[in-house]
Amino acid sequence: MTGAAVRRLAEIAAPERVLTDPERLAGYARDESPGPPLPPDVAVLVRSAEEVAAVLRLARDERVPVTPRGLGTGLAGGAIAAQGGILLSTELMNEEPQVDPDNLVITTRPGVTTDRVRRAAAEHGLYYPVDPASLEDCSIGGNIATNAGGARAFKYGVTTQYLRGIEAVTPAGDIIRYGGRIHKNVTGYDLCAALAGSEGTLAVVTEAVFRLLPLPAHRVDLLIPFDRIAQGVELILRVVRDARLLPAVVEFIERGGIRACNTVLGSGLPFPDAEVQVLIELEGNDRDQVLADTVHLGEMAMKLGASEPLVADNPTDQARIWHARRELAKTLKKLYSEVAAEDIVVPIAQLPATVAFIAELARRHKLTVIPFGHIGDGNIHVDVCREGDRADWLRGSEAFFEELIGFVLGRGGQVTAEHGIGLKKTRWMKRAVGPAELEVMRALKHAWDPDGILNPGKVLPD
Ligand SMILES: Cc1cc2nc3c(=O)[nH]c(=O)nc-3n(C[C@H](O)[C@H](O)[C@H](O)COP(=O)(O)OP(=O)(O)OC[C@H]3O[C@@H](n4cnc5c(N)ncnc54)[C@H](O)[C@@H]3O)c2cc1C
Fold this sequence. Notes:
The protein is an alpha+beta fold and 462 residues long. The chain has 15 helices and 18 strands. Helix content is 37%, strand content 20%.
């Protein structure tokens, strides 16, 4: 970037919000995916849609790439300025979200954390149910851009299902608005849906309106231990197909994950020897119904061979379980020198075969593999942890994932359920998406961003 372009940036935003110092840029050189740091040439911390528009117009004039960034918790390298240029951070666009209880919506700026959105809604007895495990650290703008899911997606779905209105800036520097405080809208093409999951490659989100729900009054979490993983998966299938139960959460944590939480976090979770623990959350407004469902679920589990479940029906026990669950990915990174992770999804009927295949593959490649996550959605996070020699681990994990992705695609699954393609997974795209579909995606990208300045190198393969 030229010095003149950096000076123009400082006229658009205040000079103190334009960073060129290598030490400060280092803080924007990574996200939470593995890989070497790639700092931008310059970072600009924007405060308004007008500033975003001016930055994008400057970038277009100068033919400089722009990488939008929320809070950098992405797991696919989407917020890394891999081709240099301008990193556009929305972290300061974080004014208090505005709840509109009469219309059951919340309006928020993109840099607000998901946790703050949820808390603001809860103050009005309302519920924003999307809760990625990173909720305290990630931004709602990042959630829109990745169409984030989370533990409660089983019952409540993912970000796009709550997105009712959006303000965004196109690469041409136009500020567009679509939808609003309305709960249904098919007026033309759905621009909310177009931007959800677009990973910062089509436009920069500067404001959003989300639908809220009533906050359920009662919840109970059950942590159900099984000696054999196949028994746990059988329970999961029965629960997700059960006409009576509609749990909010259907998760699993394999033994290595529980032990990691107990070792690193001192979580003191019970049953560390169980091969797998199934985490199910039941909730509702009728306390007796929730308790009756808890008993029903406990009986189902015990019939399948579970040990006595831990039933967490109070905030202290629930916090202990959820702290461990939410910290699990970070915990593995602390315990092992490196972790390579994928985020596969399969049709739920394929879960038994997929879980068995992962275990067999881990044995064959002699790797420490810890699967966990949102299994009720068919979504499994597969973390391959390094214990020994780096070169062996790299070779082994590469071969492991090659085979795993082949298996998943062969079973009607996909390569990512919620973390996105970003920079790191473009290598799977030609296998995961057909040539005609890829052409449509390229045409879509070209229509929004004809000069290719917004987050180049992400999502679409070369
Ligand atoms: C410990 C841990 C647990 C996680 N658990 C989950 C989980 O349960 N579910 C889940 O879905 N994800 C999870 N994630 C992944 C990550 O938190 C999500 O992808 C999150 O949505 C990223 O938000 P962010 O603000 O950190 O975005 P960033 O990492 O900053 O950016 C992510 C992508 O969004 C784009 N982007 C960011 N802001 C904007 C904007 N305003 N306009 C346009 N594009 C933008 C970026 O260009 C990039 O492509 C987890 C990550 C970690 C580290």
